[in-house]
Amino acid sequence: ANMKLILIFAALIGASLCLETFVGHQVLRIKTKNEEEVKQLQLLESLEHLELDFWISPSAPALPVDVRIPAVSVQSVKAFLESQGIEYSILIEDLQDVLDKERQDMAESAQRQRSSSFDFGAYHTLDDINAELDHLASEYSFVEKIQIGESYEKRPLYVLKFSTGGSNRPAIWLDAGIHSREWVTQASALWIANKIASDYGTDESVTSLLDKMDLFLLPVANPDGFVYTHTSNRMWRKTRSKIPGSICVGVDPNRNWDAGFGGPGASNRPCSDSYHGPSANSEVEVKSVVDFIKNHGNFKAFLTLHSYSQLLMYPYGYKCTRPDDYAELESLGRAAANSIRSLYGTTFQVGTICKTIYQASGGSIDWSYDNGIKYSFAFELRDTGRYGFLLPANQILPAAKETWLGLKKIMEHVRD
Amino acid sequence: DIDDEGHKYYLELELEDVLDKDSTVSCTAEVLYHLGSRASAPDVQVTVHGELRSTQEADKEFYNWIRSLEKELVAENIPDSHGNIPPELEPIHLLAWVASGYVIWQNSTENTKFHLAQVQHVKQVKRSDEDLQFDFVVLLHEMVSQEVLPWEVTLLWHPQRGARVSQS
């Protein structure tokens, strides 16, 4: 028996070759009856030149052994097994066939994903939005999805980072949906993300922008509130944090920033929709952004999307005096509003928050401006009250497109 | 400023027909906000300088349709979360707007800015006279406080007699 073994092993040694594809490779499932047979297989396993690939290694008689065998060795190995009376069956007749089919399936699936792509002209759930963020990150090498923190109810805060290189390049911040009922903003942010990603390399302006700067986009700044608008109350604005000592829930995240916190234009009543919260940055959704921006240290612009009213505003909200950079911000705001109007005739009013809308303390762009980020703007998108928060989905794309022109104008100025 | 009375505003307005964007009409108005914190609706005088489009046909159609319903009309969430309004409920939405206008007028000060956010609920109530009656619960969004609050308001409407808010 040993002699036979040696002869067959010799034949096997002669048969070993190096192949790059898996044409003709077979996968066998071997059923051992006893320890002796297990030892035979372990011997086989030790013959490295055969390049046998054990998917399940021989260990105990009761367990099957799966092994991939290169084409040239298939007949020899089978002869060996048969000579030893070891039972086997063929799991895979030709591995390359299986791999070819798998590659085809994957291509078809990817094709389906690209053509039945995300409908940017419709409103989506948080899960669908997060799936699209993954899709964008996987489709574009310069787009990365990062998590900057967690909401009160432990939902991840996902930011899309657009970066074509460099190390901590000067950056632009853009967020949407800090007030959850303002659905056109999250929807527009998705469209804008896709627009920027697909325009890089083809649009001169976007290309030169991303070649010099990084962009960080937070499409759903208040995920807890957003889910709540889907499941319970479409008109919910605030976060969903529990307030000690109150039956009411939630803090207005745009009164919670450390800029004139607690001043006029914010309520100290927990049940109010403009409740500023127990202290500045008490809301984790706000703190996460503050920490991220501070740690980055190189942001040049802070842009935030709200709805409705069609306004383009710069600081201040917490006080009714002009910022030091008033002239430049006013001029840039006007230019951006003109760009917006150029598309569909939609008019945006330009001015400081206090003069344009109302005095409001603890707002995000006041914080960013007072922390050295000069180009701080807040947009209020469509409409002016006819539908308000319930903007029909057929206006999402027009709103996103015109808003993009305004954002682009500002970003170009920041870049240059 | 009017001593011992309040603040008076003189306005020149352009009205745009929501259903016919090219159609505009100019108006002048005087609004007097009363002094003091005692809630009192501002005095309003409006003059329309021009003709408003006739809606006789559409009014009659809507009126006849409602009158022909076996069961009283009931509807919710107009528009829905996605901003959609079924076409046949568009007139109800417009009537809700009118009803909201009354509530807004009654609750306005120089520091409020209201919009109809959504018709949460509407129920038609059949009447023995010729008016149509709609009991609304409307959600009004107030811009300064950012509150969205429900208000109950009952509207009576008739093609010739127009819309009136029921005081009951």
TrEMBL record, chain A:
<keyword id="KW-0964">Secreted</keyword>
<keyword id="KW-0479">Metal-binding</keyword>
<dbReference type="InterPro" id="IPR000834">
    <property type="entry name" value="Peptidase_M14"/>
</dbReference>
<keyword id="KW-0378">Hydrolase</keyword>
<dbReference type="InterPro" id="IPR057247">
    <property type="entry name" value="CARBOXYPEPT_ZN_2"/>
</dbReference>
<feature type="active site" description="Proton donor/acceptor">
    <location>
        <position position="380"/>
    </location>
</feature>
<keyword id="KW-0645">Protease</keyword>
<dbReference type="InterPro" id="IPR003146">
    <property type="entry name" value="M14A_act_pep"/>
</dbReference>
<dbReference type="GO" id="GO:0004181">
    <property type="term" value="F:metallocarboxypeptidase activity"/>
</dbReference>
<dbReference type="Pfam" id="PF00246">
    <property type="entry name" value="Peptidase_M14"/>
</dbReference>
<keyword id="KW-0862">Zinc</keyword>
<dbReference type="Pfam" id="PF02244">
    <property type="entry name" value="Propep_M14"/>
</dbReference>
<protein>
    <submittedName>
        <fullName>CBPA2 Carboxypeptidase</fullName>
    </submittedName>
</protein>
<keyword id="KW-1015">Disulfide bond</keyword>
<dbReference type="InterPro" id="IPR034248">
    <property type="entry name" value="CPA_M14_CPD"/>
</dbReference>
<dbReference type="GO" id="GO:0006508">
    <property type="term" value="P:proteolysis"/>
</dbReference>
<feature type="domain" description="Peptidase M14">
    <location>
        <begin position="122"/>
        <end position="414"/>
    </location>
</feature>
<dbReference type="InterPro" id="IPR057246">
    <property type="entry name" value="CARBOXYPEPT_ZN_1"/>
</dbReference>
<keyword id="KW-0121">Carboxypeptidase</keyword>
<dbReference type="GO" id="GO:0005615">
    <property type="term" value="C:extracellular space"/>
</dbReference>
<keyword id="KW-0482">Metalloprotease</keyword>
<dbReference type="GO" id="GO:0008270">
    <property type="term" value="F:zinc ion binding"/>
</dbReference>
Automatic annotation (TrEMBL), chain B:
<dbReference type="InterPro" id="IPR049897">
    <property type="entry name" value="CYSTATIN_LXN"/>
</dbReference>
<dbReference type="InterPro" id="IPR009684">
    <property type="entry name" value="Latexin"/>
</dbReference>
<dbReference type="GO" id="GO:0005615">
    <property type="term" value="C:extracellular space"/>
</dbReference>
<comment type="similarity">
    <text>Belongs to the protease inhibitor I47 (latexin) family.</text>
</comment>
<keyword id="KW-0646">Protease inhibitor</keyword>
<keyword id="KW-0677">Repeat</keyword>
<protein>
    <submittedName>
        <fullName>LXN protein</fullName>
    </submittedName>
</protein>
<dbReference type="InterPro" id="IPR046350">
    <property type="entry name" value="Cystatin_sf"/>
</dbReference>
<feature type="domain" description="Cystatin LXN-type">
    <location>
        <begin position="74"/>
        <end position="168"/>
    </location>
</feature>
<dbReference type="GO" id="GO:0008191">
    <property type="term" value="F:metalloendopeptidase inhibitor activity"/>
</dbReference>
<dbReference type="Pfam" id="PF06907">
    <property type="entry name" value="LXN"/>
</dbReference>
<feature type="domain" description="Cystatin LXN-type">
    <location>
        <begin position="1"/>
        <end position="57"/>
    </location>
</feature>
